[in-house]
Write a structure and sequence with these properties.
By secondary structure, the chain is α/β, with parallel strands linked by helices. Helices cover about 35% and strands about 25% of the residues. Bound molecules: zinc ion (ZN).
Length: about 425
């Protein structure tokens, strides 16, 4: 049974309430799963001497981290496809390593369960999880205590287009968590696996159901050639096109790259949350299309970029996106391309690639911004917000929020404990 600290005060040597606010000798009053008050320990104690209190000692409490783009069901592939990898071959390997039908259910369920435990181990309390097997993964997510959105993944192209309706219905399999901690979303997979008219139908379907969307977009430079005339490594010559025989002559072409293609088929008109995974390749014109639309977020996955060698083509266009007002978040993607689900380690990798990005911004990219992107009352520690928080070991006293975020990201340690609502769901508060 999780230990419950409802209507208690917890203390820490320091609390990073958000990317700009460090409270030394801080305390949080937890009530009914939310934060009732946050501030200085002595002040809060003096005002509420009647409340039980627990100290986390020499630790730093932060908001629970939020991983906006992952595929927990692919956990069984960890370390199975050594990098650096070429994307088209990597997808073929992914297919070749799929579990046989008799082991599928157990493999997927185990992967999600282990993935959720690993999230908590690294202080992650909410995820945007992509799934091809929602009838399996949503049960495991519901048992995990995490929050977030489960995006049902859909492919629809060529001869498979008549499956679109049934695939959308499957992707909307209801969540099974009793307290509805997971919302349901749809995920049209990518420009090379979902044709334009199908994307348009999915957007309309999600709009009618008021559901969020997530899509892999502009992850690969080769998407442009594919959309133009089905040339390049994602086109006719791709081994996968022979394995999955869906090709026909009615798939529309598009000149102008994946971001304009997505705009053409109405993706950006979706007014519910929309997460664009990767966006490794974007021109200034592309970025202008995304700017000023507060429902759109980009999920940058630094270690997956490195695994596929996209960092060799130059840094992620993150800085231009942020300057244009596009919300960028940090995510891990799956264990098939990233070593683990340590979101702070992804932020450290992002810092290596983009050293001018302040640590406080990197911290915002895995707390406040993904919370806003997914509509979660989390991402910062303030009265009225959910009491989802992570407790990290602290080696030194920090004087500013920037110092605390820098130290946390550079060390990227596992969390010592995690609370969801007022319950300890991983580790121990008192160390
Ligand atoms: Zn992905």
């Amino acid at each position: 049974m999780p230990v419950d600290f409802n209507n208690s005060i917890i203390h820490a040597a320091a609390i990073l309430a958000d990317a700009d606010t460090l409270i030394r000798d801080g305390a949080i009053w937890l009530q009914d799963g939310k934060i009732a008050a946050i501030g200085n320990w002595e002040d809060l104690r003096r005002r509420h001497p009647e409340l039980p209190a627990c100290s986390t000692g020499h630790s730093l409490i932060t908001p629970g981290l939020i991983n906006i783009h992952t595929h927990l069901e692919l956990g069984y592939l960890r370390g199975k496809i050594p990098g650096p990898a070429q994307f088209p071959q990597w997808v073929c390997n992914l297919f070749a390593l799929s579990p046989p039908p008799e082991r599928l259910s157990q493999t997927i369920t185990d992967s999600v369960q282990r993935g959720t435990e690993e999230c908590l181990q690294y202080g992650v309390t909410a995820v945007g999880d992509i799934t091809r097997y929602p009838y399996l993964t949503r049960k495991a997510l519901g048992r995990s205590g995490l929050r977030g959105i489960s995006f049902g993944e859909i492919t629809a192209m060529g001869k498979a287009r008549h499956h679109l309706q049934e695939r959308m219905t499957l992707a909307q399999t209801p969540a099974e968590d009793a307290d509805a901690r997971f919302g349901i979303g749809l995920s049209p997979h990518a420009p090379y696996s979902v044709e334009g008219p199908a994307l348009q139908s999915i957007v309309r379907h999600a709009a009618a159901a008021r559901q969020p969307l997530a899509m892999h977009l502009a992850e690969l430079r080769e998407e442009t050639d594919f959309l133009r005339n089905f040339s390049g490594p994602l086109g006719h010559s791709w081994t996968l096109r022979r394995i999955i025989d869906v090709w026909d002559n009615h798939i529309p072409t598009f000149a102008g790259g994946p971001i304009r293609w997505a705009d053409h088929w109405g993706l950006f008109n979706h007014t519910m949350p929309l997460v664009l995974a990767h966006v490794n390749y974007a021109s200034d014109d592309d970025i202008r299309l995304l700017a000023g639309r507060s429902h759109i977020s980009v999920a940058m996955c630094p270690r997956t970029r490195h695994y596929f060698g996209h960092d060799k083509a130059g840094p992620h266009p993150c800085l231009a996106m942020l300057a244009a007002g596009v919300r960028v978040c940090i995510a891990t993607d799956s264990a098939a391309s990233s070593p683990d689900l340590n979101l702070l380690a992804e932020a450290a990798a992002a810092h290596g690639e983009l050293p001018s990005l302040p640590f406080s911004t990197l911290f915002r990219m895995m707390t406040q911004w993904p919370a806003a992107a997914m509509g979660l009352h989390a991402g910062c520690l303030a009265p009225g917000r959910w009491a989802d928080l992570a407790v990290f070991p602290m080696l030194q006293i920090h004087h500013t929020a920037e110092d605390a975020t820098a130290d946390l990201i550079e060390r990227h340690p596992p969390a010592r404990a995690v609370m969801m609502g007022s319950q300890v769901v991983s580790g121990r508060l008192d160390g």
